[in-house]
UniProtKB/TrEMBL annotation:
Top-level taxon of origin: Eukaryota
Coiled coil ranges: none
One Pfam family named in its UniProt record: F-box-like
Family annotation (PROSITE patterns): FBOX (PS50181)
SUPFAM superfamilies assigned to the protein according to its UniProt record, in alphabetical order: F-box domain
F-box domain sequence ranges: 5-52
UniProt name for this protein: F-box domain-containing protein
């Protein structure tokens, strides 16, 4: 391939592009991109390159490769690990890893390829695919207290359209601009504290506080609203659903997932722009549905762990974890999960924008 690149070095760019259009094999096309800097630049700048190399669905959305969890060890603190989904996608690419973080790092949340972890009181934002990371200023919070609810969010340059927030440097560096938000709500008083860190501001956390009430309120950068009850609950009837899980769909709309304990159905409620919650009932077919009952004489029960990019993670009371397609209801068991089980606080699903990642890797190759 290197000899071919050297022979064709005098060919005009337009001629090379026409030759590349004749290459139908995806693997051969990627080999062309790695032959020399000139060929790589031509292919990366060609809009049709990714459309030819990747399935149409991969160009429209970010597939689900797996999740980070806390792997319990016989001695010492839990160790973070990455668990691949039912369909492993890491071959040519390295499996995500936490470089620069201690073994006791606790995964908190993710946004694209960025992952927020906590090492003691030190929040760390990292890119597990490249190994790059940034340690944020220490923040002492009541992380493990049952009287507090904690939420985390990461915003990138794409999320912040305001010019004063910065637009990133356009070089594919996800850590060039970001915001990290951590909200703590005290359950008994409903008092909250929102801690915000911005890479474009002073090197420190800004904090605002207030009280969550039932009416639409706005304090600083915080907006809250009471949501209508969409799933009736009869306190005298046996529990039929797991605790609901909130997420955002591909259009950024608030979505609630409520899973039946027997895993026969997933209730999905999506809030549209006019505030109406629109229901969708998705039938599921759990693999263990036809198995015998447990020793307690009841059927296997399921619980929701999290959702990312149209993939819902659930587990049964036998500590088996499954990935469920929110579109089709197809369930696939996830192998190699940490022993001892995982819960909502111990698991962070990951999503990857494959087209952007591949272009970034090819650009790095072209610059070498």
């Amino acid at each position: 391939m290197e000899e071919a690149a050297a022979t064709a070095v005098q060919l005009p760019d337009e001629v090379l592009r026409k030759i590349f259009l004749l290459v139908k094999d995806t693997v051969a096309l990627f080999r062309c991109a790695t032959a020399c800097k000139r060929w790589c630049s031509l292919l990366v700048s060609d809009p049709s390159f990714l459309r030819r190399c990747l399935p149409e669905d991969a160009c429209r959305s970010s597939p689900f490769p797996g999740f980070f969890a806390q792997q319990r060890r016989p001695r010492g603190l839990p160790e973070p690990c990455f668990v691949q989904g039912p369909r492993p996608v890491f071959g040519l690419l390295d499996c995500p890893r936490l470089v620069g973080c201690a073994d006791s790092a606790v995964p908190l949340t993710s946004r694209g390829v960025l992952l927020l972890v906590r090492v003691g009181d030190l929040p760390v934002l990292c890119n597990p695919l490249t190994g790059r990371f940034k340690s944020l200023p220490p923040l002492k919070l009541n992380y493990g207290s049952s009287n507090y609810s904690t939420g985390y969010a990461i915003l990138t340059a794409t999320d912040c359209s305001s010019s004063e927030d910065g637009d990133g440097d356009g070089d594919g560096d996800e850590l060039s601009f970001f915001k990290v938000l951590i909200m703590i709500i005290q359950k008994d008083t409903m008092q909250y504290r929102l801690h915000t860190f911005s890479s474009a501001g002073d090197w420190g956390w800004s904090t605002c506080a207030g009280r969550v009430n039932h009416n639409l309120t706005k304090t600083g950068d915080v907006s809250t609203a009471k949501l209508p009850i969409v799933i009736p609950r009869d306190p005298l009837s046996p529990k039929t659903h797991d605790e609901p899980y909130f997420s955002l769909d591909a259009e950024g709309r608030l979505t609630l997932f409520s899973l039946q304990l027997d895993c026969n159905q997933l209730d999905i409620w999506t809030w549209h722009d006019d505030g109406r919650p629109v229901p969708t009932l998705l039938k599921l077919d759990p693999p263990s549905k036809k198995k015998k009952k447990t020793k307690a004489g009841r059927g296997v029960e399921y619980a929701c762990l999290g959702e990312k990019n149209g993939t819902l993670l659930i587990k049964d009371d036998q500590q088996r974890v499954y990935a469920v397609s929110v579109k089709t209801g197809v369930m696939q068991e996830v192998a190699d999960c940490p022993r001892g089980g995982v819960g909502r606080r111990e698991i962070v699903p990951l999503e990857i924008d494959w087209p952007a990642l591949i272009v970034s890797r090819l650009r790095e190759l072209a610059m070498e």
